[in-house]
């Protein structure tokens, strides 16, 4: 995407055999999405106010103030340029700095939209849209995060004053972690146990004002602050994750979000026809966005590692000629290309999940709640699968870049530090897999009852066939047949689920059985989620995809993704009898040959992500491949090089050296 100087990767770009511009549109999702993304990315890259190469050198206070400045400036530009919601979201994305705005727009607003009544939405959303109030999502407490029903904060209805009294009864009930809470938010959607007439009605959301809109001081009864430094020096420390305690804070009754459950003036608790699970709806929404974000983070790491692997040469010089580009080593390809394929796979499954979420939202508005369990299972499972894979992949990309990958200027350490909490926030990945497993066990238990499995479990309706079918692959080429690959994944997923269900049935207490078998259940959930990703990639290929060679590249990547999973999880496929050892070896042979097909197109396939050098933030991943001079120049910019002799020489080095010298003379 960059113009200018000598392109050290030009030869690589000429090798590619497909239309990169068309692939950029496929990656973006549509021509319109590409144009918005391209325009906004350039806008951010060209504005010095959005500089980010100095983040690691700032103290926490400077870092945080810098983030406040950027967020305020971004808001000013959004207003001045009259950006649409889509453009504003892209602007925040390309600024590439975790900030309170992520939680305001990403959780506070969606929580009010999803759980507030029409009246509540009309009151609060305009204030939030204009940023006259700034909000966060205060659910997790010091003592409980995963177990939402274990939260201890209370909201007790006082019929005399028509108010709720919000209270933190114990230390462990302190809210702990919410982003944007520590120093910024004026309001929170706080989750608390609803107590009416002494009866506990479970956890619900309440809009609570935390700070004065005049001087930003905490309101009476509110204790609030930041929870301290997190992993890495810059990274997620731009965010003010916070602690919050309530000491009998009173809020009007109409600040309880009442779409699911209402409390009347008289203190009557009325359940609407909306299911209780909708209280968890914001998490479904955010998990869906996290899947798309995974493809962004992964593609970014892969872009850096791929470009650098083409620049870097080690060994293999023939007659004084150039050494081998490390990207030409089969081991490098077998570690890198599955990650490249995963980036595309996660992009497409993210697109599908967005569609699923939109569909569920429309149904919910029409009071059709039938697809909510499916949406929960898919968002939870895919969030877990894609974030775990992406976190591992970023670290793998660092290793693929050798020693230079460990330099901050490679961009990879910061990307890793910012990204890894995605495996924990919005639901710990193992806890989420167990939610998928519950859904699978329920579906398996209903097989044969006449209730047809639908959506992502529709394959289970062919249980009779899938339980006994044998894979038909006999030659290497057979592993390029989508039906053969899909059936192997379906059979493996179903057989693992059925095996768990059979083992569960041996326990007289199902919950005890579930706990005992939870490791196997989590593996069955992974198999099911991998099947979803593979099947959505295959479905994508059934669409009309214009552009010379574009579809063929995607086909290659689809098989790289599927066959590398098959290779990695051979144990599952073999032990469930879905494939034979001979077929596993044929699949591996096919995979090796696919790597050779990816090789000439690798640089163009990462160019298709259309990332600016500003967004990539990596010397190793520069578009022009001009790595060494930039690394060399950058080293001299480090503050440690401000003076030739370091501070501390006279106090701490000279005396040691002198002492050694004296000892030597003795
Ligand atoms: C542009 C946007 C940018 C966005 C930027 C964002 C930046 C990100 C920055 C970082 C931001 C980080 C921000 C943060 O981190 S915010 C905090 C996030 N916290 C969590 O994710 C907590 C995880 N825990 C849970 O979700 C629950 O407690 C679980 C689910 C584990 C248990 O639950 P529970 O104790 O109740 O027990 P149950 O298992 O009997 O379940 C009962 C029933 O409910 C159904 N069920 C469960 N869950 C859902 C659901 N979600 N939708 C629909 N249904 C659901 C379930 O299937 C079952 O149904 P059925 O079997 O009875 O029919
Ligand atoms: C950077 C960051 C930002 C965050 N932002 C917010 C925010 O804005 N708002 C908010 O409310 N929260 C936020 N959180 C909190 C986050 O949602 C929780 O940390 C997360 O849900 C995990 O919960 P936990 O910390 O209680 O983990 P725990 O549940 O204590 O997990 C510890 C271990 O126990 C295991 N475990 C737990 N339960 C089970 C089980 N039933 N079966 C098997 N294993 C289990 C887990 O797999 C894990 O290995 C944030 C967290 C982070 C790190």
UniProtKB/TrEMBL annotation:
Pfam families: ACOX, ACOX_C_alpha1, Acyl-CoA_ox_N
Positions annotated to bind FAD: 140, 179
Location of the Acyl-CoA oxidase C-alpha1 domain: 280-441
Lineage per the UniProt record: Eukaryota, Viridiplantae, Streptophyta, Embryophyta, Tracheophyta
The Acyl-CoA oxidase C-terminal domain, residue ranges: 482-658
Lipoprotein among keywords: no
Single GO MF annotation: FAD binding
Compartment annotation: Peroxisome
Species whose genome carries this gene: Rhodamnia argentea
Keywords: FAD, Fatty acid metabolism, Flavoprotein, Lipid metabolism, Oxidoreductase, Peroxisome
GO cellular component, one term: peroxisome
GO biological process: fatty acid beta-oxidation using acyl-CoA oxidase; lipid homeostasis; long-chain fatty acid metabolic process
Cofactor names: FAD
Keyword Ion transport recorded: no
Family: Belongs to the acyl-CoA oxidase family.
Active site per UniProt: 426 (proton acceptor)
Descriptive protein name: Acyl-coenzyme A oxidase
Gene: LOC115727278
UniProt domain Acyl-coenzyme A oxidase N-terminal: residue ranges: 19-134
InterPro entries per UniProt: ACOX_C_alpha1, Acyl-CoA_ox_N, Acyl-CoA_Oxase/DH_mid-dom_sf, Acyl-CoA_oxidase, Acyl-CoA_oxidase_C, AcylCo_DH-like_C, AcylCoA_DH/ox_N_sf, AcylCoA_DH/oxidase_NM_dom_sf
């Amino acid at each position: 995407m960059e113009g200018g100087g000598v392109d050290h990767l030009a030869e690589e770009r000429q090798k590619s055999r497909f239309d990169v511009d068309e692939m950029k549109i496929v990656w973006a999702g549509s021509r319109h999405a590409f144009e918005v993304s391209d325009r906004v990315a350039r806008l951010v890259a060209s504005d010095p106010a959005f500089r980010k190469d100095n983040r690691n050198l700032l103290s926490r206070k400077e870092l945080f103030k810098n983030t406040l400045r950027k967020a305020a400036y971004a808001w000013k530009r959004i207003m001045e340029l009259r950006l649409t919601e889509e453009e504003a979201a892209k602007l925040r994305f390309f600024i590439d700095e975790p900030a309170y705005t992520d939680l305001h727009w990403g959780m506070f607003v969606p929580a009010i939209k999803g759980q507030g009544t029409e009246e509540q939405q009309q009151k609060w959303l305009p204030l939030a849209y204009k940023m006259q109030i700034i909000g966060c999502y205060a659910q997790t407490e010091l003592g409980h995060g995963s177990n939402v029903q274990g939260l201890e904060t209370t909201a007790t209805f006082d019929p005399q004053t028509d108010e709720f009294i919000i209270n933190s009864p114990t230390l462990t009930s302190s809210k702990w972690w919410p982003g944007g809470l520590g120093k910024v938010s004026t309001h929170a959607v706080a989750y608390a146990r609803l107590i009416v007439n002494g009866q506990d009605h479970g956890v619900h959301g309440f809009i609570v004002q935390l700070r004065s809109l005049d001087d930003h001081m905490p309101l009476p009864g509110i204790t609030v602050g930041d929870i301290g430094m997190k992993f890495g020096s810059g990274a997620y420390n731009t965010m003010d994750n916070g602690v919050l305690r309530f000491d009998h804070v009173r809020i009007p009754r109409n600040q309880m979000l009442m779409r699911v459950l209402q409390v009347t003036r008289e203190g009557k608790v009325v359940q609407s026809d909306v299911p209780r699970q909708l209280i968890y709806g914001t998490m479904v929404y955010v998990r869906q966005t996290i899947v798309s974000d995974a493809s962004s983070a992964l593609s970014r790491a892969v872009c850096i590692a791929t470009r650098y692997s083409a620049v870097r040469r080690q060994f293999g010089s023939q007659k004084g000629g150039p050494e081998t580009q490390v990207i030409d080593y089969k081991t490098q390809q077998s570690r890198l290309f599955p990650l490249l394929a995963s980036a595309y796979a996660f992009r497409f499954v993210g697109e599908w999940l967005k569609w699923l979420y939109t569909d569920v939202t429309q149904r919910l508005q029409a009071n059709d709640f039938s697809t909510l369990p499916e949406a929960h299972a898919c968002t939870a499972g895919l969030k877990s699968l894609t974030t775990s894979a992406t976190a591992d992949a970023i670290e793998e990309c660092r290793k693929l870049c050798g020693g230079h990958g460990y330099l901050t200027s490679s961009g990879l350490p910061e990307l890793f530090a910012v990204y890894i909490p995605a495996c924990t926030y919005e639901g710990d990945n193992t806890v989420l897999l167990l939610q998928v497993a519950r859904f699978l066990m329920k579906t398996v238990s209903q097989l044969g009852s006449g209730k047809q499995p639908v959506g992502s479990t529709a394959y289970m309706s062919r249980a009779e066939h899938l339980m006994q079918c044998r894979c038909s692959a006999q030659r290497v080429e057979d592993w390029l047949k989508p039906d053969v690959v899909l059936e192997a994944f379906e059979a493996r997923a179903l057989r693992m689920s059925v095996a768990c269900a059979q083992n569960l049935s041996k326990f007289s207490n199902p919950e005890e059985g579930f706990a005992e078998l939870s490791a196997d259940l989590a593996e069955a959930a992974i198999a099911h989620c991998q099947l979803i990703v593979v099947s959505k990639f295959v479905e994508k290929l059934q669409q009309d995809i214009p552009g010379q060679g574009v579809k063929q590249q995607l086909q290659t990547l689809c098989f790289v993704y599927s066959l590398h999973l098959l290779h990695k999880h051979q144990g599952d496929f073999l032990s469930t009898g879905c494939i034979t050892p001979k077929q596993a070896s044929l699949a591996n042979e096919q995979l090796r040959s696919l790597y050779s097909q990816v090789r000439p197109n690798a640089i163009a396939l990462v160019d298709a992500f259309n990332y600016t050098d500003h967004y990539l933030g990596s010397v190793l991943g520069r578009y022009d491949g001009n790595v060494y001079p930039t690394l060399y120049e950058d080293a001299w910019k480090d503050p440690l090089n401000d003076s030739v002799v370091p501070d501390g020489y006279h106090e701490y080095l000279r005396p040691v050296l002198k002492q050694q010298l004296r000892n030597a003379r003795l």
